[in-house]
Amino acid sequence: QSVAMRTGVAVSDEPLAARAGAAVFSDGGTAADAVTAIFFTLTTTYPVAAGLGGGGLCLVYDPATRATTEFDFLTHAAARGGAYAVPGAARGFYQMQRRFGALPWQRDVAPGEELAATGFPISQALAVRIAAAQNVIRLDAGLAAEFLDESGRPRPAGAIVINRPLAQTLSDVRLGGADGFYRGNAAALILAYSSAQGGGITAPELADYAAQQQRARIIDSGGLTVALPGPSTGAGAFAATLLETLSRLSASQ
Fold first, then answer.
1. Are 112 and 34 in contact (CB under 8 A)?
2. Its pTM surpasses 0.85
3. What is the pLDDT of residue 233?
4. For residue 13, how many other CB atoms are within 10 A of its CB?
5. CA-CA distance, 27 to 34, in Å (whole number)?
6. Rounded to an integer, what distance in angstroms lies between the CA atom of residue 144 and that of residue 72?
7. Taking CA 95 as the corner, what is the angle to CA 142 and CA 7, rounded to the nearest 5 degrees?
8. What is the pLDDT of residues 34-47, one digit of tens each?
9. Nearest to residue 7, comparing CAs of 35, 36, 29, 40?
């Protein structure tokens, strides 16, 4: 769903997150503010698409300098190996919002925190994903308590659910910035769980995680100027190859 405002358009997989982004625009926020609010709302309302344990890539265009910056905050393998990767999302959005945001950090994180604490209706999109993943959800007590009813069936669209542990973590992030996740109570829980499951994440590599910032790669394709992630990421390599192939096909016709 997308919600148009005078200063931009907020687009998301889930309606409450789109509304959170649009509200940021109406408060004078930038695109960096809007996408930060959308992400933290999605961690609550559509966790199949966004989560604090994940990572990502963002490209930010600055009209003042006409430059596009790539923020790479993908997860990476722990130095000691194991099944659990070092998460990058909270640090990546924090660094991006601090550089390009116009609103207080707390304003961007608050919508997701509030929905987790007070409850939100399951969207039709989330209900479909819950139904498809119900057998996996049953294996996790926390997920099952939130998204399955007392008989173990998926909760339907419109049902109100609450996630107070997530609300507490988002409160820590809102008040402490990225360190509220990487050095606080959330970090202790991550390290304890990773260790118990044979993971190799250490406290220093979690605390010291930093997003990489660099100029985005700019190419011309079909008369358009396109900004892409660098070739060191799979997404960047794939996108560049795809556009170059399309350009060659167009030129040969």
1. no
2. yes
3. 79
4. 18
5. 10
6. 32
7. 95
8. 999 999 999 999 99
9. 29
Residue 227 in 3-state DSSP?
strand
Tokens 């390599």 belong to 237
8 Å CB contact between 89 and 81: no
Average pLDDT over residues 49-73: 93
159, pLDDT greater than 60: yes
The DSSP annotation for 75-92 comes to -EE-TT--S-EEP-HHHH
CA 171 to chain CA centroid, Å, is 16
Q: Which of 85, 60, 82 is nearest to 70 (CA)?
A: 60
Distance CA 23, CA 19 (A): 6
Longest dimension (CA), the chain: 61
- How many residues would you count in the chain? 253
Query: Beta partners for 67?
Result: 62
Q: Are 243 and 226 in contact (CB under 8 A)?
A: yes
Please tell me whether residue 214 adopts helix, strand or coil conformation: strand
* Each residue's pLDDT tens digit, 76-125: 999 888 889 999 999 999 999 999 999 999 999 999 999 999 999 999 99
DSSP 153-168: PBPPTT-EE--HHHHH
Q: 87 by DSSP, 3-state: which?
A: coil
